[in-house]
């Protein structure tokens, strides 16, 4: 099917024809010549094209690698889409009116034609290296940390020096002459992944949110067409990052730049796969084109000091700074994972205020926030502020754990390398799927559950895995990847491939991932449902959870690989602690129960108090009669470590009211100074308990249950903390005047007196004191942080976080560097020359996190 791809001459002819038919829309020019004399063609598209260079622009480059034909083909199809739709498509009209598209369909014409006609796997250009070899990898030839490579025969040979090649010089000169370029997309194959630009230090940059959100929004457009999910990944740790790439050259010049790797083969079946890749990427390019103006001098300034003011278990208050302008408002976006799109579906607020309270959130849940300013007249938007990350506090009854596998308990086992399988644990990464070399490969992750108390009830559980490379998953729409819970007692040797392969799963997690949903650089998450959480609860007694990860087990004829590679956070190619597989758990520790009987019961008339009797209603004159009870908490429960989770007051009535009037009875938790009519009438009501009981319900049954709501439970705890008895009033209400309407309730000395049942857990309520004396110094070329831990028997450890832009106010607002009992850590993955903020939080067993102690590290920029 290769003949369906356009040749380079076909490309030029099509562009020339499009310009002739739409001269107000399209301009075609050569920006240089190749070694073999071919023109390097660039097409400019804009309404009106005469003023194209005065507008913010998107630069598209394709097929810089000769065998990656998608770049050229997609460019042609996008031009065709524009010419067929610009007259009536409002989104396209707006994008082309406000922005310009500069498109180089093929930046490597010589190599492209050599790949088409002689050797399809050719990658480089056609420079004669003078030693019998040909070609330079043009995407290693830019002046962006150019690296000299003496091996001229290598596919990644970068040339004798930066910009040694006419192709890279041509695009360099064009970019330097066009300061209006704001976004650059460089189209490659393969991988179905976005590779945003970087600055070789793997620390967050101010444009980091812009890069991720641009890719995420383009991803959203792709998904709408085919359902496919692209990855978003900045690459490996700094030592292994690509040098001399055009992407980094553009980014260094202030251009938002990303590589887009399309498809799973360099030259796929045109009708079956290439046409699909083209169709899904056209709306993605259109979105990026429309964004160019938002990164131009016409755009409002980026919102400053976007940060967390306060956070609790159900909401967060955010704040930011901006100059006082009537023509500016703010768009605020929220998602539950990073690298998520910021569009209508995630827009939670449009406001002119400099703060926002986001409520009705789930406790113990991670949230990600983004903000941009908008000009209300032009609707031009600012770049995004750095993303805010946080986790809401746990609810009063909840505890949480984030579990990581030990080094020797995370890895993969291969069918064809059984003698080396133990070496695959704790080293580099997991390969899961099937290929010719390894055969079938299975992943294995074991979590230690011993830190969970026996009898804990798991309310939420989520298993997360970070895909670091999907290039070896070469077959479109083939295979699924799944996670199964294996009986830990059924495996005596977790390094035995045959035993692991044949182990019968206790349960396979409900969600599987198809190959076109397998991303790179976006966390894969399995949310455990109720059945799966119940199984996990039962495994706590065995102290471990064993997960088997598997992909496809057979290959179609003519294919050699369908393998996904996952980061394990260990080994020379692992990306560290915050990329390890993890299991997040939110749970409640086992409940205990108290059953209290009243210590006093009184019936309170207007002129008398009758002890040891409990009645309420209305007397002969229609005056209200109150019933009053007191309960004393006789158990020795520490006030700072006791949380009431449920409470119920049970009363038994011995009669109902003969009157037909609608009389109802309510229970109030109150504060009382004296037990007399006047004191009760002027009582300070704390809260109603449960629902009222009607006279009709009194006739139906004798026993009545009054359930405490959340506020009442907290009030009960407050009274417990003050060592105060619990006072209750039984009050009657009526739709009209009632007389002789008294209900007798079982009193203290009766056979079935009132009963107050309280369920509680032992859980620390308040955070520890913050660490002290946080300091930073350079040691061995990296930043070393030291601090003093608080002295407290409940101290579990400290959590250390790095943030480039503001002091972290949440332990999740930044990059986690350390969690544990030590009083120091090293920022091994940071750049010691960059300024940043560090914060340390102490935490207990819940965990409750202390207020942060933070410092600004100035670096040496």
From TrEMBL:
Residue span(s) of domain Peptidase M14: 4-285
Similarity field: Belongs to the peptidase M14 family.
Pfam family, one: Peptidase_M14
Cofactor(s), names only, from the UniProt record: Zn(2+)
Species: Pseudoalteromonas obscura
Protein name, entry field: M14 family zinc carboxypeptidase
Keywords associated with the record: Carboxypeptidase, Hydrolase, Metal-binding, Metalloprotease, Protease, Zinc
GO MF annotation terms: carboxypeptidase activity
Organism domain of life: Bacteria
Residues of the Fibronectin type-III domain: 302-395
Keyword Hydrolase: yes
């Amino acid at each position: 099917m290769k003949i369906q791809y356009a040749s380079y001459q076909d490309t030029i002819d099509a562009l020339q024809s499009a310009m002739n038919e739409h001269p107000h829309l399209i301009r075609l020019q050569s920006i240089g010549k190749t070694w073999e004399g071919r023109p390097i063609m660039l097409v400019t598209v804009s309404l009106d094209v005469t003023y194209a260079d005065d507008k913010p622009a998107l630069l598209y480059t394709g097929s810089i690698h000769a065998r990656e034909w998608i770049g050229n083909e997609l460019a042609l199809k996008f031009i065709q889409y524009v010419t067929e739709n610009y007259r009536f498509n409002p989104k396209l009209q707006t994008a082309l009116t406000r922005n310009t598209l500069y498109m180089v369909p093929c930046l490597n014409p010589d190599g492209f034609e050599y790949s088409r006609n002689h050797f399809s796997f050719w990658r480089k250009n056609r420079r004669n290296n003078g030693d019998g070899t040909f070609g330079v990898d043009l995407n290693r030839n830019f002046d962006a940390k150019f690296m000299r490579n003496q091996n001229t025969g290598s596919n990644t040979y970068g040339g004798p020096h930066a910009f040694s090649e006419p192709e890279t010089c041509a695009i360099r000169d064009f970019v330097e002459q066009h300061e209006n370029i704001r976004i650059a997309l460089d189209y490659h194959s393969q991988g179905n992944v976005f590779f945003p630009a970087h600055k070789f230090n793997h620390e967050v940059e101010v444009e980091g949110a812009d890069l991720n959100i641009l890719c995420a929004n383009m991803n959203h457009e792709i998904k709408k067409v085919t359902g496919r999910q692209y990855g978003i990944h900045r690459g490996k740790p700094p030592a292994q990052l690509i040098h001399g790439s055009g992407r980094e050259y553009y980014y260094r010049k202030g251009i938002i730049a990303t590589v887009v790797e399309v498809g799973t083969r360099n030259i796929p079946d045109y009708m079956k796969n290439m046409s699909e890749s083209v169709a899904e990427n056209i709306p993605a390019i259109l979105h990026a084109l429309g964004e160019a103006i938002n990164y131009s001098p016409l755009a409002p300034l980026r919102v400053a000091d976007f940060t967390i003011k306060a956070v609790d278990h159900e909401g967060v208050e955010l704040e930011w700074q901006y100059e006082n302008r009537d023509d500016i408002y703010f768009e605020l976006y929220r998602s539950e994972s990073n690298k998520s799109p910021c569009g209508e579906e995630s827009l939670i607020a449009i406001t002119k205020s400099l703060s926002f309270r986001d409520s009705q959130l789930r406790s113990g849940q991670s949230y990600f926030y983004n903000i941009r300013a908008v000009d209300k007249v032009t609707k031009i938007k600012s770049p995004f502020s750095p993303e805010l990350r946080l986790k809401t506090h746990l609810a009063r009854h909840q505890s949480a754990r984030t579990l990581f596998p030990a080094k020797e308990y995370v890895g993969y086992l291969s069918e064809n390398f059984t003698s080396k399988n133990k070496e695959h644990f704790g080293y580099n990464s997991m390969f899961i799927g099937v290929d010719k070399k390894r055969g079938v490969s299975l992943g294995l992750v074991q979590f230690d559950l011993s830190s969970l108390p026996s009898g804990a009830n798991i309310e939420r559980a989520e298993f997360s895995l970070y895909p670091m490379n999907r290039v070896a998953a070469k077959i479109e729409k083939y295979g699924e990847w799944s996670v199964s819970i294996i009986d830990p007692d059924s495996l005596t040797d977790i390094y035995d491939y045959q035993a692991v392969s044949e182990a019968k799963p206790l349960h396979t997690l409900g969600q599987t991932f198809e190959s076109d949903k397998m991303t790179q650089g976006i966390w894969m998450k399995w949310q455990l449902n109720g059945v799966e959480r119940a199984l996990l609860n039962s495994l706590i007694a065995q102290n471990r959870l064993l997960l088997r990860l598997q992909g496809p087990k057979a290959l179609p004829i003519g294919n050699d690989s369908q393998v996904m590679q996952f980061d394990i956070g260990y080994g020379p190619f692992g990306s560290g602690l915050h990329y390890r597989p993890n299991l997040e758990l939110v749970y409640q520790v086992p409940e205990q129960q108290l059953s209290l009987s009243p210590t006093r019961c009184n019936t309170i008339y207007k002129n008398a108090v009758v002890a040891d009797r409990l009645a309420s209603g209305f007397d002969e004159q229609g005056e209200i009669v109150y019933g009053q009870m007191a309960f004393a908490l006789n158990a020795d429960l520490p006030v700072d470590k006791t949380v009431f989770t449920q409470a119920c007051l049970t009363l038994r009535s011995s009669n109902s009211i003969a009157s037909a009037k609608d009389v109802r009875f309510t229970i109030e938790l109150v504060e009382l100074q004296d037990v007399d009519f006047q004191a009760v009438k002027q009582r300070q009501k704390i809260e109603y308990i449960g629902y009222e009981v009607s006279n009709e319900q009194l006739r139906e049954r004798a026993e009545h249950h009054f359930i405490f709501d959340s506020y009442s439970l907290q009030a009960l705890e407050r009274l417990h903390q003050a060592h105060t008895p619990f006072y209750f009033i039984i009050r009657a209400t009526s739709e009209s005047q009632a007389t002789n309407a008294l209900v007798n309730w079982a009193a203290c000395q009766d056979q079935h007196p009132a009963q107050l049942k309280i369920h509680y857990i032992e859980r620390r309520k308040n955070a520890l004191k913050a660490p002290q004396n946080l300091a930073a110094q350079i040691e061995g070329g990296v930043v070393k942080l030291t601090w003093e831990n608080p002295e407290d028997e409940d101290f579990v450890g400290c959590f250390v976080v790095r943030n480039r832009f503001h002091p972290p106010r949440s332990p999740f607002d930044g990059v986690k560097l350390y969690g544990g009992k030590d009083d120091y850590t090293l920022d091994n993955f940071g750049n010691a020359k960059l300024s940043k903020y560090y914060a340390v939080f102490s935490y207990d067993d819940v965990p409750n996190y202390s207020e942060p102690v933070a410092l600004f590290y100035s670096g040496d920029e």
